[in-house]
Amino acid sequence: MKMKAIGFTLMIASAAVYAIEPLPLEEGLRGYVAPSVSVMSFRDNTLAGSKGLEIGNKRIDSLAERADEETAGSVSLAMEVGYMFLDQGVYVYLGNRLEDYLRLDNSSELGARMDLGNLGILDAGVMFSPVATEVWEDPFLAGADRTETDRTSAGGRIGLANILGTALEIHFAARSVSIDNERSGESLGLSVSDRALLAREGESVDVELLYTLKIDDQNTLIPSIKYGVYDADGAAMTRDGFTIQLTHAFSYERYRLISNLGFRQTEFDEKNPVFNEKQDEDEFIISLTGIYNQFMGYDEWSLTAGLLYAKRDSDIKFYESESFVASLGVMYFF
Known about the structure:
The protein is built from 3 helices and 18 strands. It is mostly beta strands. A hairpin with a 2-residue loop joins β2 (about 45-50) and β3 (about 55).
């Protein structure tokens, strides 16, 4: 049982300090299940929530103000199931990759990871939204109840880690975003051409570079930079921008502490016809995740707790948002 406990500890440690997790060393089935409960506080005029979770203001009285604060609780489940084919050097997986879960990316993926020798570790997969995000059909409707509609995304991702034996990683991702009922600006009596500027569906492409810097046996840093483009159907929603993030992983005996600090700057192509100015934004994100391995003496179990704070400033006050999330959960490895 001691060797199994060491294996689970290394699994968490490696996922915390790599965007692409190293390949398993043994053939067979493996994965994790991570149920959790969360309490969250949100201010956002554009998001309604998700299935079973309402976080948006159904009714707003003015387009000139930030959203009112909403508080809610939720139960969530992250998991991954995979199989390692040792002779072929291929790991196939489905679910929420552990490294994404620890870096706060909740997308699901069907993919494969392959050892390319000196070239590095190749990771490729198809991404999808298992649970739709709910937005408003017409986010600008004021003085009446707004109606929710589903926003989903699907796409692909490919990445290469340990490039030529270094700690450098590169990732490419492309997604298509769909909204069931797009009615932005319908309540305002805008012209057909102005309403077309507000169309939110589109295609996104991201390129990210990461480098894993091992400081000592207990501390690892991962600086990263990402450039993203979102080509929306509406020019006022089309945007591009840079994200810089620093991830720090600390380990001591059974304890793991993973912190993320990120900053995103986004510029929009055209003026928003509702406000007659561009929606340019700056966003700040900070999070802290603690993991206690061998929870209650069980090798396969870990206790997790997390805090996240995010704030988005916009040149248009209507789009400013703020969120705080506190979560507690467990992780079971098999």
